[in-house]
Write a structure and sequence with these properties.
The protein is an alpha+beta fold. The chain has 9 helices and 6 strands, in the order αβααββααβααββαα.
Amino acid sequence: MVSAGYWKDNRSWPPSPWRLRDLQGAALLGHPEIAAAKAKAASARAAISTADTTPNPGVSFSPELGQGNSPWLLGLAFDWQIETANKRGERTAKAQAESNAAALSIADTAWSVSSGVRAALLDLETATRRLEILEAQRDNDTALVMMVSARVTAGEAPRTDLSVYLSQQSRDLIDLADGRSKLDSARAKLASAVGIPASALQSTAVSFGSLDHLPPTPSESKLRRAALLQRSDILAALQDYAAADAALRLEIAKQTPDLHLNPGYTFDQGQSRWALGVGLTLPIDRNTGPIREAIAKRDESAAVFQRLQSGIRGELDQSLAAYRADCARLHEVNSLLATQMQQLADAERLVKAGETNHLAELGARALVQQANLARIDALNQAQQSLGHLEDSAHLSLDEP
């Protein structure tokens, strides 16, 4: 997670190129989702003072017109409600728990926004590197077509050989068009993830960093502790349960009658009369309906928390297994690439020695480029799995 003071502490302004942390920091400062979560938390904080306020007193004025020398009867009465059984305290505890949950939702939203920026930047980096390889592949296949075409013209090769390379050249053009389209789409996706217009990134250099940087698989115990004890949504669910429990205690407290003091003054036929009344709110049904409802809502909060815990465990297990599998697949692809690179080096050496022609060298280079495409895809998949693993634990694992 990136703090808003990252640039002040670590980087000059403006950054060039914009790296992952820079973009995440920009998103945390200005993303609409963050602003909405902060506004919701501010509303929840304001509700605490409302919950902690004592009931306002009431006043009534009742003039009457009668008979006699002083026909007016003027009455003035007050109503002071005194809450009992710590109702205000339970109401405040409920509001405080709801405020805590809203504050934790800011952290959860911030993680989601940062994760979205990482995923979008990874797509952009992958699309950029794929396009570079596809352009090199096109140039290599163009050279192959020219060489085979010259051999066909010279009668040294059948025309069917040329057809194969021409088909590959046509596929190169389709792949390039698709690659450019994916690059534009990834750039627009990144702008949306940061919360800025797509035009703002048109002339801005961005970099994911090293795709090869993949941390070793952390211990499961560390991941489980982080996921089940530190995730902001887990902590927010606990606060939701605390709010539901406080609401239940408040409904139980309402079984105890509140006290009402009703002092009054009456001007009657020239005489002043003072009165002091005492009243009680009588919960005849013992508030059973609201209590049953509050119990059901508390049970619902407990079930939601347990469902969230169970989902996180499953998500963590799947993400960990996927990350391990993708790292193993990347190792196999790297071995294949090393083999193809060695074959290309052998072909280049034979060409320099005059023992073979350039056609074999170009063919070996084409295989290297295909292996590079497979490696970029494998790196992208491994980085995606790493991102999912981090999301499942809300724990950053790829710190340099």
